[in-house]
Design brief:
- The chain is α/β, with parallel strands linked by helices.
- Helix content is 50%, strand content 18%.
- The strands form 3 sheets. A 5-stranded mixed beta sheet has the order 2-1-3-10-4, sandwiched between helices.
- Helix 2 packs antiparallel against helix 12.
- The structure holds alpha-D-glucopyranuronic acid.
- Alpha-D-glucopyranuronic acid binds next to loops.
Length: 337
Amino acid sequence: MKKWILAGLCFCLALCLCACAELETTEPEYVLTYAENQPQNYPTSLGGERFAELVKQRTNGKVIIQVKYAGEYGTDEEVAEQMRFGGIDFARVSLAVVADEVPILNVLQMPFLYKDAAHMWRVLDGDIGKEALGAFQETGLVGLSWYDSGARSFYSTKPINSIQDLQGMTVRVQNSQLAMDMITLLGAEPVYVDHNDVYYAFVTRKIDAAENNWPVYQYMEHYLVAKYYTVAEHTRVPDVQIASQRTWEILPEEYRTIIQECAQESALYQRNLWVRNDIFARATVIDSGCEIIHLEPEQKLQFQEMVQPLYKKYCSDYMDLIKTIQNDIVVKTSTGE
Ligand code: GCU
């Protein structure tokens, strides 16, 4: 009798070993690339890593996404360009570098559009955000999910206490016509520098100022070379996870659905991480002795008024949409919420 039990156990063990071996040797059907321009421990990078893990799990290893960090595949704009030809399959990029061609995408990055982060998320998580993800199709890309990139403010080698201090400064901007025009309207000189070269642009004095969120200021060590941070919060430019339309077309429906779900889940994970990292970055730069400048309300209003012509130039066909977004502010503030 004992012999039979032993034989049975051996048989089960053998079955388990075979199953494990099969799992180990599962051949992926697709090995796909994913570009990220931030360092590996940055919140958007961790979001990308989570996305890849989820896709691997839910496709039982049939779809593998290899994430490359720190701009290994090129600048955001080079990545978007390569994606249109199917050279790179996925990426997380800033909306700023893909919006120039699609006006509705510009709407979502207009200066002083959102009252705060919660307002922006109501827009992006609602119908407007969904429609905007759909609009990526016009550019040979597929919009998958929105990632948080906080609010952008100015940081500089000399203090910016008012609009007067900004006059004539060279200010680094993203590769975006809207960003260039915004800086020109504010009386400064826009200079395009790739994200990964901003530190050196400060060191070599190519620029006097840049504008970005707290985590970039801290993670990219810009705070070591530009110690004044002026909390203007002039824009909230969301980040976005995208896929190449060419890649998308060859993926079976079943995998597309999984990928879309995983992108959304990774976005929720990233947004949580963002909140914590934003606080951490702010505390770190304050501890290190950076000077944080809070604009007086009338100064902030002046910034806001000076960039108004952008609405006419970039959104004249979308004024109703702009009003719909802004009305959220009116409704919320008038009811005291
Ligand atoms: C944001 C965004 C980056 C982008 C950067 C920039 O922080 O997350 O992907 O490169 O802005 O200003 O270039």
